[in-house]
Amino acid sequence: MHRIRTWSRTRRLLVVLMVIAAAELAFMGVQAYLHPKRTTLVYNPRVIAGQQLAGWCAGGFYARQGDSIVVTSAGHCAPAGTVVNADDGSGPIGVFGPKAFMATCPHPDHECVASDIAAVVLEPSRIPWGHLNEVDMGVGGYRILAAGTKPLTCGDIKVGDLVEIDGRQEFRTGKVLDKGEYLHADDGSYFPCIVAASINAGSGDSGGAVLVNGVPAGATTRELGGKLGFTPLAEGLEALGLVLCTTPDCDLTPPGASPSATP
Prior knowledge:
Blueprint: H1 2-34, E1 52-54, E2 57-58, E3 62-65, E4 68-73, E5 83-85, E6 92-101, E7 111-122, E8 134-136, E9 142-144, E10 162-165, E11 172-182, E12 189-200, E13 209-212, E14 215-224, E15 227-232, H2 233-240, E16 243-244
Parallel strand pairs: 7-12
Antiparallel strand pairs: 1-2, 3-4, 3-16, 4-7, 5-6, 6-7, 8-9, 10-11, 10-13, 11-12, 12-15, 13-14, 14-15
């Protein structure tokens, strides 16, 4: 009888351990589903487009302003001239430029902005030459822009289109819900177009890359009832005189490289 009781206790212990192990595996599976980890490499210098620029704002897309390489962010993130320092203490990333102001303002009591976009002029050491046509969407993977890709305008974006963002290193997807003017008495900014999407948004998402149907479409701008509001990319780039990077070196010659032969 003593042996039988011992075996019975051992068997119960094994069953309990198996239940605990199964529960831990299930919990790990849920965590992996809710908080997936990236499987792609991080370049050095890293691709900031699509990733967090600094703690309070995200990076959008690489663009060219003459011979300078910039990354877009939100115009409301910081005043022009603000130096952005890396969160890891490794020094400056770049300097904010001005907002994408409209040439004429139909609402003089507001700050009229073509799109809530500003250019951050990058420190030379922060430019990932060979990867300037890429957008790092974290667990959503790198998106490589085909040569000649055109940024979307407000008119290009339709209700029901697929939307993707990766602000705060949290990849999210949803659909376009609506679009229209942005004009409110309690907000000093006026945008001729803002797009609402069915994606939860929060502090820190501002300026992040927005893809619509896989195409560069805008910058995260506002939280609209807890959901994403973004302004279109094409209008912002045009107002700032920027050209979207759609080739690995953005049609420039990287420092130290030999210029390509001209036929």
